[in-house]
């Protein structure tokens, strides 16, 4: 069985045509992208690296990493989102290879093949996040980097990421997130250890309602990023 929720896939497939509209439903991803891209590049130095972007969607992060000189492959299970990603890659002239395949299936086919693996804003949308983490650990080369971003599970994250972002500020479509699938940092750290990875850094992402800007922070209570490495 594929580690995917058909409802979640359909939800993002239905919005695929809006992926590259910076003022539509994916506006927060466009605003967040420079922050996460810079953080990834500061750790992994993307130029010349072979990179895999898991759950790439329409390719916002994939193209950005390729723009920094990485050789990027993006994978997703949404056929519609990948179609949009392919088309935008042709329009932008930034080359990215895309494939419709699950992380676990690619891990069986291409173990230890990538210098860097990213899995951003995806773990909270799959039934078995630990299995995706294990696949990431298999896919990355010894000494390589793996990056995750997801949402913490607590009252504050529910109020801000669900009630605030989806219902009050309407930054995201209603139903974007299922609070029950949010992942505490301690839980993700456990998945990482079990997969044979070593946590190197963790950062929070905060959003200023007045500045309307995202920023890196030591506050991991809502959105957070985790960097880890496979032992050489």
From TrEMBL:
According to UniProt, the name of this protein is Ubiquinone biosynthesis O-methyltransferase
Give the highest taxon in the source lineage.
Bacteria
Function (record text) = O-methyltransferase that catalyzes the 2 O-methylation steps in the ubiquinone biosynthetic pathway.
Protein EC: 2.1.1.222, 2.1.1.64
Statement: the UniProt record of this protein carries the keyword Methyltransferase = yes
Q: Which of UniProt's keywords are assigned here?
A: Methyltransferase, S-adenosyl-L-methionine, Transferase, Ubiquinone, Ubiquinone biosynthesis
Keyword Membrane recorded: no
Pathway(s): Cofactor biosynthesis; ubiquinone biosynthesis
Reaction catalyzed = a 3-(all-trans-polyprenyl)benzene-1,2-diol + S-adenosyl-L-methionine = a 2-methoxy-6-(all-trans-polyprenyl)phenol + S-adenosyl-L-homocysteine + H(+); a 3-demethylubiquinol + S-adenosyl-L-methionine = a ubiquinol + S-adenosyl-L-homocysteine + H(+)
Q: Which GO terms describe its molecular function?
A: 2-polyprenyl-6-hydroxyphenol methylase activity; 3-demethylubiquinol 3-O-methyltransferase activity; polyprenyldihydroxybenzoate methyltransferase activity
Q: Which residues bind S-adenosyl-L-methionine?
A: 36, 55, 76, 120
Entry similarity comment = Belongs to the methyltransferase superfamily. UbiG/COQ3 family.
Pfam families, alphabetized: Methyltransf_23
HAMAP family, A to Z: UbiG
Organism, scientific name: Paraburkholderia caballeronis
| Annotated GO biological process | methylation
């Amino acid at each position: 069985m594929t580690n995917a929720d058909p409802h979640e896939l359909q939800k993002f497939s239905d919005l695929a045509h809006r992926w590259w509209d910076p003022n539509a439903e994916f506006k927060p991803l466009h605003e967040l992208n420079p922050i996460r891209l810079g953080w990834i590049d500061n750790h992994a130095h993307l130029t010349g690296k072979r990179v895999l972007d898991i759950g790439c969607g329409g390719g916002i992060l994939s193209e950005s990493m390729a723009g920094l000189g990485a050789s990027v492959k993006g994978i997703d299970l949404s056929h519609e989102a990948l179609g949009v990603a392919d088309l935008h890659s042709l329009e932008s002239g930034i080359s990215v290879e895309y494939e419709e395949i699950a992380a676990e299936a690619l891990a069986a086919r291409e173990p230890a093949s990538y210098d860097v693996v990213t899995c951003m804003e995806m773990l909270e949308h799959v039934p078995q996040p630990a299995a995706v983490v294990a696949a990431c650990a298999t896919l990355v080369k010894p000494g390589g980097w793996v990056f995750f971003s997801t949402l913490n599970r607590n009252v504050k994250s529910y109020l801000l990421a669900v009630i605030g972002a989806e219902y009050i500020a309407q930054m995201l479509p209603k139903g974007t997130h299922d609070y029950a699938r949010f992942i505490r940092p301690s839980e993700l750290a456990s998945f990482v250890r079990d997969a044979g990875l070593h946590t190197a850094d963790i950062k929070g992402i905060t959003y200023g309602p007045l500045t309307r800007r995202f920023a890196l922070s030591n506050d991991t209570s809502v959105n957070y990023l985790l960097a880890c490495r496979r032992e050489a």
